[in-house]
User: Fold Solute carrier family 12 member 8 from Ascaris suum.
Amino acid sequence: MYDGINCSKIGFDVRRSNESFFTVFGVFFANFLGVLAGVNMSGDLKDPHKSIPVGELAAVGVSSTVCFFFIVALGAVADRAYLLCDSLIAEKISLTGFLFLTGLYISSLSSTIGSLLGTPRVIQSIAAEGVIPILNPLAAGQGPNNNPIRAGIVMMMVAIVFVMLGDLNQLAILSTMPFMITYAFVNYSYVSLAMSYDLQSVNSIANASKEKQSYGSMGNLKGAAEGTSAADLDSLFPERMQHPELGAEHHTSVIGQPPSWYSMFSSRYISFIGAIVNILILLFVNVWFALFHFAALAALYFYIGRVCPSVFPGISHFSLPHMFKTAFSSIESLGTLPKSSIVVGTGLQGAAKPDMQVSSELVNEENPDYSDRKQYHHTEHADALNDFD
Assistant:
């Protein structure tokens, strides 16, 4: 903990409360929230696949270097008491205080403009997905670039409400929480995609090993059945033809990316550790704010599941609960013998038949209750195999 200092002894009528590393981190982390500005404006970039990695790494590298030298310079020329009590100590020790304040205002204006350009785009994209029905009016845009005017107005109104609270330090911590959660989800998303790509490769190899060569006239039966499945669904459900999007299939395969110069920074293990660290930092900064955000995310998750249960879940097939369940089930199965199964037939002609009786039973019972409806599932009786065409 950082000990409180009596600022009145050095001319400041302020009593600083005790602060920890994480509370200070929660305030200063708000200055690093622009690292995803390029991602938020990816729709306006000419080549997002090339520009986003370069821009992200450049933004993180430049901002981290500048902040590091700024901290070292302040610690070298100013006493600790003034650093804690005077919020404008950097302006007083700068060579030209006027230029320092001008740069401070310009940087604040730049961050504001970046938020005005990027955040409404994100809100508009979320609203356009139709996942949250209450946001559907914000999907509309104006002009040839589909500018998100409605989303921008709503965002400014929300920002004004929070600014009226007055405590900038608490607002900085409050704005840090959603971004830390976003970074945690970004890290976990890469882990999930990487694991899904491995599962996809394993499943393709397993399915290829199970395929058998076709024999005689039976070889084309499977292909014929697959070729007519879509037509059968269209005939059974004519609304598929009226609304083609109902029958549209989403691409569920994870496509591998070619190696590049920044591939060395991509690691599923580092991303997984980063996601855990982000969540832990949230709890250390302010446990009540963190629990509030977790509760809000849980409420949003259940709300989406209630109002839009058929939403496309994405191309990722990896799940941490399923992984742990599979691992524990594998551990429990150690030392147990696999169960064997045997198929008993009625015997060949001239061979001894087992003492058993075989009878057939209809799966779907026929009754006149719904005789006026079309029989999607019906049965036919035949005395011999020759009765079938």
